[in-house]
Amino acid sequence: MKLRYGLAVIVLDLVMSLGARWLAPHDPMSGALPLRLHPPVFHAAGVGPLLLGTDDLGRDVLSRLIAGAHVSLLVGLFGALLALSIGVPLGLIAGLGAGRVRGLVLRVTDIFLPIPFLLLAVAVVAALGPGLVNLFLALGLTRWPRFTRVAYASSLEIKDRPFVEASVAAGATGRRLLWRHIFPNISSAILVVGTLEFSNMILFESALSFLGLGVQPPEPSWGNMVAEGQDYIATAWWMITFPGLAILMTVTGVNLIGDWLRDHFDPRSRSL
């Protein structure tokens, strides 16, 4: 059930993201002021062609919702990949390296871990400036410590197993140990963390866009759509409700996939 719901949500988001140009019924960045704040079609005063109503500038909420899926998935994917590409090599270096190298990596990781993420991300975005590219750079450069810790703990546990010690005794090189034994055995843990971090990236992108530090208007993002609708929550509830539901459903779907992957790769979880 977890996997089915999660995959259904992700497939829907991918379809909206890749097919936004053809699926969006109207231009998401242009509106008509005479149609501003029209309610959804199922509302008593709804307008027929506008399924989810319009915002304060007369732009179609459904079209902006579809276009915003592209931004959220893109930032989530590239942010998670950047954090993974930084954190995993550092974790492997700490797990397989000598004492001084391990100590240096772990101390740097410990410095970053206690810092509140949003505070660190806001500082990075303030230094780089708002924008789509700077947004996933900020997310990737501030979320790598979790990957480092997982890769470090997993590699430390794997390298003491008998089959690795046997390979070392047989004269296996460090590169062969890494790619033949260490990395394949820690990849499942990294995949689970990567999936959960992907959902976190979507949530954090929405938070930063809500604060005005992410994707800049008029380009649609679920986060800045929520920010635009907060002043109209009493009179035009659909402006904030539908993008909020999109964030909730997507993050829940990805987390359910992550939970399924954890249960699949860890038999002990299935027995609990």
How does this structure look, described?
The chain has a single domain, classed as Orthogonal Bundle (MetI-like fold). The chain is built from eleven helices and no strands. The protein has helices at residues 2-18, 20-23, 61-96, 99-112, 117-128, 132-158, 162-169, 174-210, 222-229, 238-265, 267-270.
The gyration radius over C-alpha positions equals 22 Å
Catalogue the unreliable spans: none
Shape: elongated
Query: Major beta sheet, specifics?
Result: none
In short:
The chain is mostly helical and 272 residues long. The protein is built from eleven helices and no strands.
Lay out the secondary structure.
Blueprint: H1 2-18, H2 20-23, H3 61-96, H4 99-112, H5 117-128, H6 132-158, H7 162-169, H8 174-210, H9 222-229, H10 238-265, H11 267-270
Summarize this structure as a short list of keywords or feature phrases:
single chain, 272 residues, mainly alpha, MetI-like fold, 11 helices
